[in-house]
Design brief:
By secondary structure, this protein is α+β, with helices and mostly antiparallel strands. A five-stranded mixed beta sheet has the order 6-13-12-9-8. The protein has a five-stranded antiparallel beta sheet with strand order 21-20-19-25-26. It has a three-stranded antiparallel beta sheet with strand order 1-2-3, with no helix packed on it.
Length: about 575
C-alpha cells in the first residue's frame, strides 16, 4: 500500500510484514492505493527507490485486493505478447486445415453441463441406450494438443503455469483466451476438435472402451441447476439432447453403484461462489454443493480417465498418472478412534496391523458411514469430512502408475480438463501416440513433469483457498455494517488448534473464524489426544467437533482472510434480522 511519510511516499507490504520501500513519485497513484512496485537500486548498489509498476486499486474493494493478492503470490495476470500472438495464430487456423483423420460425431446429440459462470468448456457428453439394456457414452474432450504443439512457446508457458487458478471474480488461465474460451472451448453450435472416449456401460461398470480423434458440435450448454430441475421434473428436457441426457443419467448412476460397491471414498464437498457488484464489492455468496447433475459429470469423467490410464499403462506409453497412495494403517486406526470419540459409527477393523488394502477399504467404508451419519444427524459434515481427508495421503502426478486408493482404481490419470490442467495435455499426447501414431512423449521429461505439475497444483489450491477467505471476510464486513454490533451467530465447531477452535458460522456456515481458548473463561481447557474435543479440567465440560456453538465476531482482517471470534453470552438470542436481507 502506498503511504505518505512526511515529504516522502513509501510502499508498505500489504499482505505480510516486510520492509518499506521509498517510492518515486509519478502521479499514477495516491496515498492509500494498492500498488505493485519494482525495486530500482542506485548505480552504486546502495539503497535506491521503488518504481510504481501498476496501480491495483483500493484496499477497501474486494476485487482490487484479490487482484493484488494474485500478483503478490507471483501470478502474472497476463501473457507475453509473443504467446498471445501465437495463440491467436493457431486459434485462427480453420478446422479443415487440421490435416488429421477424425471421426465425425457432429450428428450425435451432444451437450455440456457447467456452472453458469463457466467460460472454458473442456468436456461434452453424448449418450444413448443400447439394445442389450446398457448404455453407450461418448465423452468428448477438447483437443488442445491440436493447437498447442509440444515444445512450442505456448506449450512452454502452459507448462510453466501448470494449471489455471480460479479465485473469486477472476482466473489466471493456463492458456490465452483465444484458446481457453475460444478455439478449444466446446461451445454450442460450433464445430470443435475433440478427443473422444467411447465407453460401453452396463450394471457391471465399463464393458469396453474405444478412443477417437474426433469432430463434434455441441447442441446445448446446460447448467447444473437446470439439469437438476429437469431431473426433479420441474423443467422439460429439450430436443435433440433430452434423450441423450436421460441415457447419460442412467449410465452415471450405474457407474456410481459400481464404485460404491468397490469401496471408493465418499466425501461430500462444497465450493463457495461469490457475487460482485460493478464496483468490485462482494455482495453475496452461495455454497455450491454436489448434486446429481455434478455427480453425473463426475462419474462419466472418472470412467474416461480410468480407461485412458488403463490403455496407457498396458501399452507402456510415457504419461502422467494421478496417484493416490493407500493410507497408512496407523492413520486409519486413528481416524476410527477419532470418530468413535465423537459418537460416529465406525466399522469393526481387522485384528492386528492393517494391510495397505485393508486400510484403503476401511477408509472407504468409514467415509460411507460418515456420510450416512451426517445425513441423519444434520451436523458434522465439514468437521467429519475433514477428519477423513486428513487420514488420506495427498494425491499427486507421477510417471509411474501406482493406482488411486480413494477411487479404488488400479489405473487413473487426469485426461478430461486439458484447457486448465497441463497433466491432462500430457495424457492427450500419450493417448494419441498410442492410437494415432503421434510422437511419444519423452520418458525422462515426463518423469520430471510429475513433481513440477504436482507443486503447481498445490500452490494453486493454496491461492484459491486463501482468496476465498479474503472474499468471505469482505462479505462478512459488508453484512455486519448493516447489523447490530452484538450480533450473535449460530456456529459449528469444524476444527481445533492449540490456540482454540475453528468455528463455521452464519448462513449455511459460509463464514469461518478462530475462537481463542483464552476467551473461554471459567475453565481451563485442554485438547484431547484424538484432537477432537476441548475438555474443561475444572467443570468436565466439553466442546467437540461438530458441536453447535453461538459466537460473536470480534475483529476481521480481510487482506489476510482471518476472523477473530468471541463466545456469545449465555442466553443470547440468535436473530435472523441481525443481517440485512
Amino acid at each position: 500500500m502506498l503511504r505518505r511519510r512526511g515529504k516522502f511516499l513509501v510502499a508498505e507490504p500489504f499482505f505480510e510484514a516486510g520492509p518499506r520501500l521509498a517510492v518515486s513519485r509519478d502521479g499514477r497513484a495516491t496515498p492509500g492505493d494498492l500498488v505493485a512496485v519494482r525495486s530500482r537500486p542506485h548505480r552504486d548498489g546502495r539503497g535506491g527507490r521503488a518504481v510504481i509498476a501498476q496501480r491495483l486499486g483500493r484496499p477497501d474493494v474486494a476485487q482490487d485486493v484479490i487482484e493484488a493478492f494474485m500478483i503478490d503470490r507471483g501470478l502474472k495476470r497476463s501473457f507475453a505478447s509473443a504467446v498471445e500472438r501465437q495463440a491467436e495464430a493457431v486459434a485462427g487456423t480453420a478446422i479443415e486445415h487440421n490435416g488429421r483423420s477424425r471421426r465425425d460425431f457432429r450428428s450425435l446429440p451432444t451437450f455440456t453441463i457447467d456452472p453458469p459462470s463457466a467460460r472454458d468448456f473442456d468436456d461434452a457428453i453424448s449418450a444413448a441406450r443400447t439394445d442389450d439394456g446398457g448404455w453407450r457414452v461418448w465423452v468428448h474432450i477438447a483437443d488442445v494438443g491440436a493447437y498447442v504443439a509440444a515444445g512450442s512457446l505456448l506449450d512452454r508457458e502452459a507448462y510453466r503455469r501448470g494449471c489455471s487458478v480460479y479465485v473469486p471474480g477472476a482466473v489466471e488461465p493456463m492458456l490465452p483466451s483465444a484458446l481457453s474460451s475460444g478455439a478449444c472451448s466446446l461451445v454450442p453450435a460450433q464445430d470443435r476438435l475433440a478427443v473422444t472416449v467411447e465407453v460401453s456401460v452396463g450394471e457391471e461398470g465399463v464393458r469396453s472402451a474405444a478412443f477417437h480423434r474426433s469432430l463434434i458440435r455441441s447442441d446445448a450448454r446446460l447448467h447444473y441447476d437446470q439439469v437438476d430441475g429437469i431431473f426433479a421434473g420441474a423443467q422439460a428436457a429439450g430436443a435433440p439432447w433430452g434423450e441423450a441426457l436421460s441415457a447419460a443419467r442412467q449410465a452415471a448412476a450405474a457407474l456410481q453403484r459400481r464404485r460404491s460397491a468397490r469401496g471408493a471414498v465418499i466425501i461430500a464437498g462444497e465450493e463457495p461462489e461469490f457475487g460482485f457488484d460493478r464496483d468490485g464489492n462482494v455482495v453475496g455468496a452461495a455454497a455450491v454443493q454436489q448434486t446429481e447433475a455434478h455427480r453425473l459429470i463426475e462419474h462419466l469423467m472418472i470412467a474416461a480417465n480410468e480407461q485412458v490410464a488403463k490403455l496407457l499403462s498396458e501399452r507402456g506409453i510415457p504419461a502422467l498418472y494421478r496417484v493416490h497412495e493407500r493410507p497408512d494403517a496407523v492413520a486409519v486406526e486413528r481416524l476410527a478412534d477419532q470418530l468413535a470419540s465423537l459418537g460416529v459409527p465406525t466399522p469393526p477393523l481387522p485384528k492386528g496391523p492393517l494391510t495397505p488394502q485393508q486400510a484403503a477399504s476401511a477408509v472407504g467404508e468409514i467415509s460411507q458411514l460418515v456420510t450416512d451419519f451426517v445425513a441423519r444427524s444434520g451436523r458434522g459434515r465439514r468437521a467429519f469430512g475433514s477428519l477423513v481427508l486428513r487420514s488420506l495421503k495427498q494425491a499427486y502426478y507421477d510417471h509411474r502408475n501406482l493406482g488411486h486408493a480413494g477411487l479404488q482404481s488400479a489405473n487413473y490419470c487426469h485426461f478430461t480438463s486439458p484447457i486448465r490442467r497441463y497433466p491432462d495435455l500430457v495424457c492427450h499426447r500419450a493417448l494419441l501416440a498410442a492410437i494415432a501414431g503421434e510422437p511419444l512423449p519423452d520418458r525422462a521429461w515426463v518423469a520430471g513433469a510429475g513433481p513440477w505439475t504436482s507443486t503447481r497444483e498445490r500452490e494453486a489450491m493454496t491461492i484459491e483457498r486463501d482468496a476465498d477467505d479474503i472474499a468471505s471476510c469482505f462479505l462478512l464486513e459488508r453484512l455486519l455494517a448493516g447489523a447490530r454490533a452484538d450480533a450473535v451467530f449460530e456456529g459449528e465447531v469444524v476444527g481445533f488448534h492449540s490456540a482454540g477452535a475453528f468455528v463455521a458460522f452464519g448462513p449455511d456456515g459460509q463464514f469461518e473464524g478462530m475462537l481463542p481458548v483464552r476467551r473461554l473463561v471459567g475453565d481451563w481447557w485442554e485438547l484431547n489426544d484424538q484432537l477432537t474435543m476441548l475438555h474443561g479440567t475444572r467443570t468436565g465440560a466439553t466442546i467437540r467437533l461438530g458441536d453447535a456453538i453461538d459466537v460473536q465476531v470480534g475483529t476481521i482482517d480481510a487482506p489476510r482472510g482471518r476472523v477473530d471470534l468471541h463466545p456469545a453470552p449465555v442466553g443470547a438470542t440468535v436473530a435472523a434480522d441481525y443481517l440485512p436481507g
